[in-house]
Design brief:
By secondary structure, the protein is α/β, with parallel strands linked by helices. The protein is built from eleven helices and 13 strands.
């Protein structure tokens, strides 16, 4: 049994990672300021210790890592539009808090820090699939903030010998992704609109592609990154390794929900990339990572969760 800290563990991806850790018999502590997460996501596990604090505040990170062996750092404001609107606040949440955590982890001699980065660091390169040797070309403050944090991970690894690994996530989706947030992922926004009888918005022509990855695969990949040997200082893509256009995605959801509602198309947003697909060769080789959930099965489970959630709220 090992001791884990999950920052942002009350959020979408973090809470699924907590589920996996608890199922594996690990001791888990969560720190979350609940800016995007919910307390219910943590309280489902009676043995999980919960700290409601903000990592960026002085002394909080040191308190959080006390007695911890592995840190999974998922706390962030994961939104390109939000970073365009408020780069200072998102930099504080995404970069300043990461530096506080790195300093605390270094001083506490933790065994490994796993950082949740983003495919957005690649920018709009036409090269597909995107591999870790490509030069980063961030197009938004959010992407730049993730890249800065990756560089901090590498620097602390080289200067202080802190064992770090950065995982670049690609368009994660699944249950517990807040469908009511304007900054939520496109899948949850589509489902929310269709269930409410509204026309979802697609920015651009809808032919842009993404590597949509189900959240349970990401949670298992995070655990594998904690346990893998000889990966200190690495940067690794974590995704399904496929491509789906937004128009294809919308058709699948239409069929799943049995609706004929059509989307509204608007101008492309600043900071959005055209195409994204991960090369997951390195994840397979270093982590033994093999995504198991197809996009169709993942969407079905996500729709079922959303329908159940709405019914529970209306009951």
């Amino acid at each position: 049994m090992s001791r884990y800290l999950v920052t942002g563990g009350a959020g979408f991806i973090g809470s699924h990672l907590v589920d996996v850790l608890v199922a594996n018999g690990e001791t888990v502590r969560v720190i979350d300021n609940l800016s995007t997460g919910t307390r219910d996501n943590v309280l489902r596990h009676a043995r999980v210790e919960f700290i409601e604090e903000d990592l960026v505040e002085p002394g909080i990170a040191s308190k959080a890592v006390e007695g911890i062996e592995y840190v999974c750092h998922l706390a962030a404001i994961p939104s390109v539009p939000r970073s365009l609107e408020d780069p200072i606040a998102t930099n504080r949440a995404n970069v300043d808090s990461t530096l506080q955590l790195l300093l605390a982890a270094r001083d506490a001699n933790i065994r490994r820090l796993v950082f949740a980065s983003s495919s957005s660091v690649y920018g709009d390169s036409s090269t597909l699939p995107k591999h870790e040797r490509m030069p980063p070309k961030p197009l938004s403050p959010y992407a730049l903030q993730k890249l800065f944090s990756e560089e901090y991970m590498l620097l602390f690894n080289k200067l202080y010998g802190l064992d770090t690994i950065s995982l670049r996530f690609f368009n994660v989706f699944g249950p517990r992704q807040n469908p009511k947030s304007p900054y939520s992922g496109v899948i949850s926004l589509f489902i929310s609109a269709l269930c409410d009888g509204r026309q979802p918005t697609i920015y651009g022509d809808g032919e842009q592609t993404r590597d949509f990855t189900y959240v349970s695969d990401i949670a298992n990949g995070l655990l594998a990154a904690c346990r893998a040997d000889r990966i200190s200082g690495e940067v690794v893509n974590l995704a399904r390794g496929g491509r789906t256009s937004l128009n294809q995605l919308f058709k699948i959801l239409q069929n799943s929900l049995g609706t004929t509602i059509e989307p509204v198309y608007r101008s492309k947003r600043e900071g959005d990339i055209r195409d994204s697909q991960a090369d997951i060769t390195r994840a397979h080789r270093l982590l033994g990572f093999n995504p198991r959930v197809t996009i169709e099965d993942g969407l079905r489970q996500t729709v079922e969760w959303y329908c159940d959630s709405v019914q529970n709220l209306e009951a």
